[in-house]
């Protein structure tokens, strides 16, 4: 009884595997099958290609590009919300305090994710 159940389950798994493989072959007819090693090599080659394309930029160009893109993303927040928001203060000490608090909150909360997003672009 147990062996019949095991054989039936094995047959079900074989049928499901065959169906999935047939679906894959029909859906992705133009692609070749790849095993783990092939997938690893392909991913490694893609990463190396990305690194090679980055070498086309000098470090100064790379840094300038990052700075420009980062400033483009954060300038509205820095100028409008932080600086102009604190500009209504009557004393420079109050202005500095308000700017320090706003910058601290913003750099702890939003700046890290914004920097990562800019880096991925």
List the helices and strands and how they pair.
Elements: H1 2-27, H2 36-54, H3 59-86, H4 92-109, H5 111-120
Q: Concise description?
A:
This protein is mainly α and 121 residues long. The chain has 5 helices and no strands.
Keywords:
121 residues; 83% helix; mainly alpha
Q: What does it look like?
A:
This protein is an all-alpha fold and 121 residues long. 83% of the residues lie in helices and 0% in strands. The protein has helices at 2-27, 36-54, 59-86, 92-109, 111-120. The longest helix is centred in the middle third of the chain and has 28 residues, at 59-86. The mean pLDDT is 84.
Please state the structural category. Answer: mainly alpha
Strands, total number: 0
The end-to-end span amounts to 61 Å
Q: What's the helical proportion of residues? A: over 70%
Q: What summary fits the major beta sheet?
A: none
Low-confidence residue ranges? none
Shape: elongated
- Following the backbone from N to C, one meets helices and strands in this order, namely HHHHH
Percentage beta strand:
under 5%
How many DSSP H or I helices?
5
Q: On the 0-100 scale, what is the average pLDDT?
A: 84
Radius of gyration: 28 Å
């Amino acid at each position: 009884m147990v062996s019949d159940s095991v054989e039936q389950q094995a047959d079900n798994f074989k049928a499901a595997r065959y169906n999935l493989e047939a679906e894959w072959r029909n859906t992705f007819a133009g692609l070749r099958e790849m095993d783990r090693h092939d997938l690893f090599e392909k991913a490694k080659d893609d990463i190396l290609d990305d690194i090679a394309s980055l070498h086309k930029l000098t470090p100064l160009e790379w840094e300038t590009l990052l700075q420009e893109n980062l400033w483009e993303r954060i300038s509205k927040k820095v100028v409008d919300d932080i600086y102009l928001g604190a500009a209504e203060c009557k004393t420079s000490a109050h202005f500095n305090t308000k700017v320090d608090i706003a910058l601290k909150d913003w750099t702890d909360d939003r700046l890290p994710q914004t920097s990562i997003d800019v880096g991925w672009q």
